[in-house]
Design brief:
The complex is a heterodimer.
Chain A lengths: L4 H15 L2 E2 L14 E11 L6 E7 L5 E7 L3 H6 L12 E8 L6 E9 L16
Parallel strand pairs in A: 4-6
Antiparallel strand pairs in A: 2-3, 2-5, 3-4, 5-6
Chain B lengths: L19 H11 L1 H4 L37 E5 L16 E2 L19 H11 L26 E5 L3 E6 L4 E6 L16 E7 L2 E7 L5 E2 L6 E2 L4 E10 L2 E9 L8 E10 L15 H4 L2
Parallel strand pairs in B: 5-6
Antiparallel strand pairs in B: 1-3, 1-12, 3-4, 4-5, 6-7, 7-10, 8-9, 10-11, 11-12
The chains are: A alpha+beta, B alpha+beta.
Amino acid sequence: MTLNRRSLVPALVGLCLAMAPAARAHHSQSEYDLRAKVEVEGTVTKVEWKSPHVWIYVDVTDDRGQTVNWSFELPSPVTLMRRGWTRDSLKPGERVSVSGAPARNHPAIAIANAMRDAGGNPLFTGTTKVYEP
Amino acid sequence: MRTTERSSPSRRTSTVGALWPLMLLFVWATGPGLVRAQWLDYPTPGIPRLADGSPDLKAPAPRTPDGRPDFSGMWFANVPARDYCREEDCIQEERMAREQINLGITLEGGLPYTEWSREQMKIRGANGGREDPHSYCMPPNFPRAWTLPQHTRLVQTPGMMVMLHEFNGAYREVYLDGRPLPVNPNPTWNGYSTGHWDGDTLVIETNGIRDDMWLDIQGSPVTESARVTERLTRPALGLMQVEIAVDDPRAYTRPWAVTIEMALQVDTQMLEEICMDNERDTALYK
C-alpha cells in the first residue's frame, strides 16, 4: 500500500489511535471545562482516599486575604496505589501547588492534572509495574 | 520496582535511628500483616520464572488435570507499560485499552450500526457521554468489562468459570456443565452464559442481556436481542485472546467479531473498587 498526501493524515491518526497506551479518563469529564486552567497553592485540609476517585481539599488564600477551601478530583485510589502511592502519601497540613481544570457550574472545584509538594516533587504521577507478554 | 521511588521515599523522614530495635520487636509482636497491608508486589506463587526472577510469560499455558487449558489468573487488557505519566499535567492519564473507547476500532469501517443504534448513540453521546452507566457506578457488564481499567480474575473449575471483576466487586458465572441457555430469560447486566470446549478454545455463549447496555465509552449498544459468543484461547502463560462476536439484529446490520488481547497480571493483587463509596461526579453534572 502506498500513502499519498490525502491518505497520510488519516493513516497517521489511525496509527496514533492504535498505539495510544493511555487515555485521559474512562468516564465523562464533561462537568469540567478542560480548556480552562486553575493554578493554586495552599494547605491540605483533608484527603478522601475512597473510590471511585480520590478527593483532596486545599485551603487557598485569595488576593483579598479570604481563605477558600478548594476540592480537587484525582484518579481512583486503585490507579494511584498501582503507581505506588498510598493514603499516607499526602497529609493534612502539608503545602501543595495544584493545577487543573475547573468545574463548569461549581466554584472552587477542579480536576487535578498536576500536584507538587512543598519541595517541588510531583505527586501522584508514575506508572504501573507491568510485565509484557 | 515501584515507579514512584523518586518522589515517595523522599517524603519519608529518617528518624528511626536508635529506635530500630524497638521497631523490630514491634514487627515481631504484631506479625507481617501490619507491616504490609497490601500485597501489590507479592510474588505470585507457582508460575515459571526466568533467571532474574521475572515471570516467564512466554512459557506454555498451564493445563488442568483433565488436560484443558487453565485460564485461571488475573487479567488486564494488553496495554504497553509505557512511561505515560512521568511529566507534569498527567495525573489523569490512565492505562487503558483502546477498545474501551470504541470496541470496533480494529474493524474496517467500524461497527455496522443500524439506524436505531445511530440514534441511540446520538442520545448517549450528548453532554459528553454523561449517561454512560459506568459514570453512575453501574455494574461492569461483559463483554465491555474486558476493556475496563480494572482487573478481572478468572477462577476455573470443571463445572464453572467464575469471573471476578474489581469494579464494584462484581462477579459473572459461566456454566460449563452442559446446560442449555435459558429460553426467554429475565434480562440482566451480564446475561446468562454457558461454555463448552472446542479443542483448546473455551467457547462462551451468552443471551439475556439488558436492552440498555453500552459496549464502550462512545455508547455502542447491545440489546436483549443479542447473542454474544466469546472464544477464549491462551497461547502462552502471559497472554489470552478473547474473540468477542456479537449477533444483535436490532443494533447491528450484520454479525461482527473483534479480538482483544489480555495480559496476565502477576506479582500483584485484586484491589477493591466500590464505586458508590464516594461518587461525587454526577452531582457536578447539574
